[in-house]
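Data availability excerpt. The first of two example chains:
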Amino acid sequence: MDMASDTGRKQFWKRNTSKVPGSIQHVYGAQHPPLDPLLHGNMAKTAPKAPTTPVKSKKITTFQEFENNTSDAWDPGDDDDDELLTIATENLNTEVVMETANRVIQNHSKLQEKHKLKEEEKPIQFPELSLFINVDSKMIKSASESQLPSSTDSGTRKASFQRQQSVPHQSVIPADQYTCGTSVLTEREVFRMDKFKQLLAGPNTDLDELRKLSWSGIPNQVRSITWKLLSGYLPANVERREGTLQRKQKEYFAFIEQYYDSRNDDANQSTYRQILIDIPRMSPESLILQPTVKEIFERILFIWAIRHPASGYVQGINDLVTPFFVVFIGDYIGAEEVENFDVSSLPEEVLRNIEADSYWCMSKLLDGIQDNYTFAQPGIQRKVKALEELVSRIDEQVHRHLHQYEVEYLQFAFRWMNNLLMREVPLRCTIRLWDTYQSEPEGFSHFHLYVCAAFLVRWRKEILEERDFQSLLILLQNLPTMHWGNEDISVLLAEAYRLKFVFADAPNHYKK
């Protein structure tokens, strides 16, 4: 390859500043501590270089083609480890933490080796959930229309669905379709489920204990109620939950009545138009493209934007609705996969509950990272800078390699921060990741930095094999995670926790 073409390629970002991912309007993220030395542990694993973007119909040969195919990410205009749980809840010295976290990672590595031959002999598949236990409440389905349900007629048009406050009445699946590797609960998983049920059954849920228990993953059966409690949406007191849910639902739909008609006003048209553009780009497509789901997401995002004028709607916020929506709808669909479920078949009262809950929980999440929506996105800038410094101390070779080929961290880490890695890992992994984020102090703002650092170093072998700017960018924006599952997330979190512990005394200006 001649010098002229190489120089031209390296100048691509400099010549096309409007195309740089970091120039995308608003961004959210958070600030993080600087960093100190050592470690990259055993995070380097080989993985098949399979493309993770399902919409691609042909092989991408240039970075410009790749950028065009993924422009929605920066469009400027249009199981569980008890040892690790112990670390998270006790004040241990660095040596003990490093030793224990390494042991967690090594245990996972041994398990992967043990099953390596089996994985080579058959295609990787995610577990089918065929076993489930029937409880006394059966699923009620009806053919509801996709328009906004009316609070006055919903009772006459559809059978009313009883609101679930604690462990919901549903077809209880004994395996978590997002986090378990087998279709039958192990003895340990049964024990953990019992501990969750005991915590949730009391008159006042001990939130500190619930966080400790949730750090290593939440069983699907109790994830919905646990997320609502950990996010601060529901009170710990059981007797107050019914009233809180009714009040917040009423409040949300009062916002709909007050503001939603203004979406076509001149002042709000650009916001609403951007929401309409962004929603079809989300995943899973089979769920998001259902008319009922699209309308629910449009209302949630528009109302949030109207009620937060200092920032307004930001590309990327749309992705944050999905995990809440999928988890909350799981209360009502039993073992059926949400991607294949006809959401319009649910009663209107159920849809109203899910919509209101998703709005309020998303709002709680965004409250913790609100400072990143201000003009010029200073929070994102600091967060990416902190990631760069952290990686330079964790794995200097990877850092130097990126610098050698003029790859800027903002060019790939912008999306990692903007979408909380949701575009980088499957939805099932995002949901498992959020179990821990909601258990960690400042999980979405502060702990996410260490997860991103561990995530980057995880691909060090693949990164070091690439020898030019274009190939590195394509790799970093298209990492082969489509077959990731609970074990991969557990290893990632173990390494991220270790990094957090080592660099816990970082200067405060990175945490602002």
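And the second chain:
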Amino acid sequence: MQRISTKLVLALFPAALLVTLPAHAASCNWSAKMEEDEGGSVMTASVCGGQKGDAHLMLACFEKPVLSYDLGTAGGQLEPGISGSFTFKAGDKSLTKKLELEAMYNYFTAELSGPSDPLLALLRGKGEVTVSADKYGEATFPLKGSGTAIGKVLAACGKGSGGAAD
């Protein structure tokens, strides 16, 4: 009887993994919501990705859009004051951007030029984007829902900071 139970468990184990993986992947789509920041509430678009789903790309708008990249557990504890060149690749397009470490939160950030920034255009694409750096490896993020989420952040740009919305 024991031998049959073990065989049954081993036979069903791969099926259990397949059931678990899509549920995890579904939770890694872009979304936009109000989040608390030092200066109050700010509209933030975010997505999770990477091998463990613990890496994050986030976009918030203060005076200009700010992209943040949290390496997740792959990043470990990083040294304050560092920066890195990260390549963002989606489909046949890629661009490299220098990101500075935000020591308080332990993730890399870059202020973008505005709503027409080439990186925002790349992130509004279809499929997925891979973010890579020699020193930090790579993580892949889905782009499903990115256009809507990024649009909500850009629409909120300047609101609550005394500026006019675009």
